[in-house]
Design goal:
- The chain has a seven-stranded mixed sheet, with helices on both faces.
- The protein is an alpha+beta fold.
- It has two domains: about 140 residues, 2-Layer Sandwich (Fructose-1,6-Bisphosphatase, Chain A, domain 1), CATH 3.30.540; about 160 residues, D-Maltodextrin-Binding Protein, domain 2, CATH 3.40.190.
- Helices cover about 35% and strands about 20% of the residues.
- It starts with 6 loop residues before the first helix and ends in a 28-residue tail after the last helix.
- Helix 5 packs parallel to helix 6.
- The radius of gyration is 20 Å and the shape is globular.
- GO terms for molecular function: inositol monophosphate 1-phosphatase activity; metal ion binding.
- Its EC number is 3.1.3.25.
- This is Inositol-1-monophosphatase.
Length: about 325
């Protein structure tokens, strides 16, 4: 651990590495890992639970008066009334892990009076450690990182997460992907939202969007993005996204273009925008039958003036 880092961030790093060691040991024989299902396509393993316990023990040993909000155990541990709350996802990408697909991570954030101040996202398969402290920048293995400099959506790689739970709006997600696929260099679905956000911070991806996420999926990654010079919010560009179950992030110029394309799919969109989306989805089978991709109009094509779209007031600083 570095003596130059904030003491609380150093403790979070220690906790993340302890969890990562448990995950790496289990990955050597993943078929022996006991798996249970929280709901259809939503899994939890003994590794999630063991990693979470290691994180909580490390954090509360150092800061016994702090609160805990963890994916598997909720707020059972720590102080219920502390202004300091650790937000933990012990294994983001569990489905990848149980298949031996090496894209998953540990995510730990510390919120103080409701604002995320410290963040760690640790990829144990690559030993990649992403860290951020508010106002001090974002880092990957002690190297400063910045979001990408691309400004044309047509040059960009965008990451997302596909819907997979009962009740998810599959048809709307297909419409969102249809908006983006013809307008970007590629759309990717790695399978771990916290790592997706870390990759936006590092400039590996130019943007990210996903609905249905919980606060532990986005708390740490969101701070990484903003400290790396990017923007993060909900689909309409509003900054208060942590508990809204939709997240959009990117380099500033790309973020603005993504808001222009995806804002109408937000649950916070206007009634008129929602009606137009419903109509477009109702017409979608006809377009698919004709083998036609949605036309890019003058306001949304990557070569158009949409490159200069700015984020709406209230977007994340």
């Amino acid at each position: 651990m570095s003596s130059n880092l904030h003491p609380m961030l150093n403790v979070a790093i220690k906790a993340a590495r302890a969890a990562g060691a448990i995950i790496n040991r289990a990955a050597l024989d993943v078929e022996a890992v006991r798996i249970s299902q929280k709901q259809i396509n939503d899994f939890v393993t003994e590794v999630d639970q063991g990693a979470e316990q290691a994180i909580i023990e490390t954090l509360l040993t150092a800061y016994p008066g702090h609160g805990i909000l963890a994916e598997e155990s909720g707020s059972q541990h720590g102080s219920k009334h502390s202004e300091y709350v650790w937000i933990i996802d012990p294994l983001d990408g569990t489905t990848n892990f149980i298949h031996g697909f090496p894209v998953y991570c540990v995510s730990i954030a510390l919120a103080v009076k409701g604002k995320v101040e410290h963040a760690v996202v640790y990829d144990p398969t690559r030993n990649d450690l992403f860290t951020a402290t508010r106002g001090r920048g974002a880092f990957l293995n002690d190297r400063r990182i910045r979001v990408s400099k691309r400004t044309r959506l047509g040059d960009c790689l965008i990451s997302t997460g596909f819907p997979f739970r009962p009740g998810d709006n599959f048809k709307q997600y297909m419409a969102m992907m249809a908006e983006l696929m013809p307008r970007t260099a590629g759309l990717r679905r790695p399978g771990a939202a916290a790592l997706d956000l870390a990759y936006v911070a590092a400039g590996y991806c130019d943007g990210f969007f996903e609905a249905g996420l919980s606060i532990w999926d986005v708390a740490a990654g969101g701070l990484l993005v903003t400290e790396a010079g990017g923007l993060v919010g909900n689909f309409t560009g509003e900054a208060d996204y942590l508990e809204q179950r939709e997240c959009l992030a990117g380099a500033p110029r790309i973020y603005g273009q993504l808001v222009g394309l995806l804002g109408k799919y937000s649950k916070f969109a206007s009634a008129g925008e929602k009606a137009s989306v419903r109509q477009a989805m109702a017409d979608a089978p006809d377009a698919a039958a004709d083998g036609q991709a949605p036309a890019a109009d003058a306001t949304t094509h990557p070569d158009s003036a949409a490159e200069d779209t700015q984020t709406r007031p209230g977007a994340a600083p």
